[in-house]
Amino acid sequence: MADSPLLASKKCPHCQQWSMWQHRVDDRCEHCGELLDPRAQQSALEREKLEQQKMPPMFLIEIKPDDNAAVRFFKTIVRGGQFAFAAILSFIIWLVTLAAG
Fold first, then answer.
1. Which of 14, 56, 81, 99 is deepest in the core (most CB within 10 A)?
2. 42-86 tens-digit pLDDT
3. Contact, 18 vs 30, CB < 8 A?
4. Residue 91: other Cβ atoms inside 10 A
5. Residues linked to residue 18 through DSSP beta bridges, in sequence order
6. Whole-angstrom Cα distance, residue 25 to residue 77?
7. Strand locations in 12-94, DSSP E?
8. What is the reported pTM?
9. How far apart are CA 39 and CA 66, in angstroms?
């Protein structure tokens, strides 16, 4: 019973007929084939677009090819520090979760 999807019926906003609805954004009417919840579909598309525009979770300093040698050298050192910080933080989180059991 835990794996069964939530089944309900929903009135189609296009043809006004009742169709089975599994609470998904891509559910379609059994009669006309239109989306049962077009606003949810639009909202899901907008959310997906926003997620694609987000910055990566770990922001690294950018080393541009047109930087001179000294700037690239110092940026490389800073980037190494960023990687070391992430590695140490990951190790501490792993250690805490291991200790928590």
1. 14
2. 888 888 888 877 766 667 888 888 999 999 999 999 999 999 999
3. no
4. 10
5. 11
6. 47
7. 18-21
8. 0.44
9. 46
Query: Residue 44: how many CA atoms within 13 Å on its side-chain side?
Result: 10
Task: Give the amino acid at 49.
Answer: K
Tokens of 82: 């960023």
Please enumerate in sequence order all residues whose Cβ is within 8 A of that of 60, keeping only pairs 6 or more positions apart, or say none.
Answer: 79, 82
Residues with Cβ within 8 Å of 11's Cβ and at least 6 positions away in sequence, in order, are 17, 18, 19
The structure tokens listed for 90 are: 């990951």
Residue 25 tokens, joined: 């954004």
Determine the Cα–Cα distance for residues 69 and 77; give it in Å rounded to an integer. Answer: 12
Q: Which residue has the tokens 């169709």?
A: 19
Task: Return the higher-pLDDT residue of 63 and 101.
Answer: 63
Residue 23's contacts (CB-CB under 8 Å, 6 or more residues apart) are: 5, 6, 8
Amino acid at 8: A
Residue 79 amino acid letter: R
